[in-house]
């Protein structure tokens, strides 16, 4: 990864990126489509947020705001916090992370094991927990002159690293005829904005699918209650990075349907996906059903399932039935088979 070699980093920084791409094949209606899963759990600290955390710290180091002895502060649903905790420990910064009650316990324990201070805010009704987290960050910044906010919500380094690193990795591995679609779930929107900016310039035929949670305000609209809320998927606030031209299709999914997709993929293929990854895969299948020309679909899979207690072997109890079109897509996931094709760059290696 370019950013890692530009900044004398830790061993962990150097291992960020170049994550695996695993193809699955689904045959239906006389067609054959391939879903390519970009497995970001392969990063240090188990998620795509290793890329973001590294880029955020590097940006503050580069502009002189972050110097030894200072305290990094961030609001996080879990993944970014864990990566920041690890990287701060390696670089000698203090670290305070503001999380919420549905942040996975194991992530909090690992943050603390890296020496981070973890503050948990209780759930606020109406999808406003993020405001409570940000209020705590503001308090810390007001009280501690050594505190520096990485600010994943507005720092251009967030989309920047996906434009400079994540997207080119996807593009290099594309089949000869390119990707038909790339599906990205949104929270801050950094991943989607960065990938879209790159694809619009270098692979303009690829259609971008933005995947958001029902009840999220990440792409606009009002935040609402989300039963079975999955950490890292959607947001109580509109993304500061995403502009309307960044996506071609938007798919809004209920958390329970994303969890159901994760369960089916795991049962069928053994691949473990976190909720936002399951959402990206399910959204891609919905797209494939609607668009008979779509054959090669790549899905950004931010993390795996292990730390999420909501991700059970089946559909979450009490979730009710999926809507008809979603149910059809979920059933197609039961037909998914691991495919032997190698990503292009590896096949040519
Ligand atoms: C599991 C998971 N999926 C998706 C995302 C979304 O990434 P972004 O903030 O770039 O939109 C995050 C971010 O926290 C995440 O942790």
From TrEMBL:
- Tryptophan synthase beta chain-like PALP domain location is 15-299
Q: Which InterPro entries match?
A: Cys_Synth/Cystath_Beta-Synth, TrpB-like_PALP, TrpB-like_PALP_sf
Keyword entries, A-Z: Pyridoxal phosphate
Required co-factors? pyridoxal 5'-phosphate
Q: Does the keyword Cell inner membrane apply?
A: no
Q: Gene3D superfamilies in the record, alphabetically? A: 3.40.50.1100
Superkingdom field: Bacteria
Q: Which one Pfam family would you cite for this protein?
A: PALP
* Cleaved signal peptide residues: none
Under PANTHER family, the record lists: CYSTATHIONINE BETA-SYNTHASE (PTHR10314)
The protein's name:
Tryptophan synthase beta chain-like PALP domain-containing protein
- What is the species of this protein? Streptomyces macrosporus
